[in-house]
Amino acid sequence: MVNFILRRLLISLLVIFAISVISFFIIQLPPGDFASTYKAFLLQTGNMTEDQAEAMTQLVRSQYGLDQPAWKQFLTWVKGIVTEGKFGYSFAYRTDAGAIILDRLPKTLMLALLAHLTSTIVGVAAGIYVAPRQYGAADNILSVIAFILTSVPRFFMALVILYLLVFTFGQHHLTSFFSPEYAVAPWSWGKFVDLLSHIWPVILIAGLGGVARNMRVMRGNLLDVL
Questions:
Q1: How do residues 67-76 score in pLDDT, each as one tens digit?
Q2: What residue numbers bound the domain in which 210 lies?
Q3: Which of 67, 138, 179, 187 could share a disulfide with 61, CB 3.0–4.6 Å?
Q4: How confident is the model at residue 45 (pLDDT cuts 50, 70, 90)?
């Protein structure tokens, strides 16, 4: 059991590393960098000449290592994570990237947990329901729905559902976590219900793929037993 856990942990670390490598170098593919964008911003302000903006741009490149080869930038980034726990600097938010991650982490974990619970409960219940009704109307309909849910890209599904809810049905409150009266209020049952009323589409979208997967697994296992 210990060997299995260690092996899975090692595989997970390798997958994370591979994803980080691919993501990093994909970002490097388009021409230009933040310094180029920063130079354009400086020129738009009209407070600097071309030479002054270029000098400032070169200073920024040197300060943040953007003048280094891509592979060296990647190794510097990995070294910062491993030795100092730093994830780099966010040019968009102008702050440490690690601070941004820590700030978003609680809400991200909450959404992931609720989506996982939803997909497990609904998926298992649906699998139990359709298994004794193999090839019936309910089984065929839910199987088609499960196939669609696993085939449609999640980001596209999210865009369609949120567009319909916000722009077609006018559910503008879904763009925030809380209603104004609960934003700074202490936690209570009312605040929790208000939170769910705002984030249920996100939970639904994140859990739909899991619902389809869990339903098919539960259906198959029950059919083997029945």
A1: 888 888 888 8
A2: 102-225
A3: 67
A4: confident
Cβ-contact 196, 115 below 8 angstroms: no
- Quick: pLDDT tens for 22-41: 988 888 887 777 777 777 77
Q: CA 69, CA 33: separation in Å to the nearest integer?
A: 13
SS3 helix, strand, coil % of the chain, rounded to 5? Answer: 80, 0, 20
Assess whether 110 and 193 both reside in one domain. Answer: yes
In angstroms, the Cα distances linking 144 to 9, 82, 157, 195, 221 are 35, 46, 16, 32, 19
72 and 151 fall within a common domain: no
Using alpha carbons, list the distances in angstroms from residue 36 to 33, 115, 159: 5, 40, 31
Q: 114 and 214: one domain?
A: yes
Residue whose token pair is 């196939």: 147
107 shares a domain with 201:
yes
Model-level pTM greater than 0.85?
no
How many structural domains compose the chain?
2
Which of 101, 132, 155 corresponds to the end of one domain?
A: 101
State whether the Cα torsion 32-97-202-26 is positive or negative.
positive
Beta-bridge partner residues of 89: 96
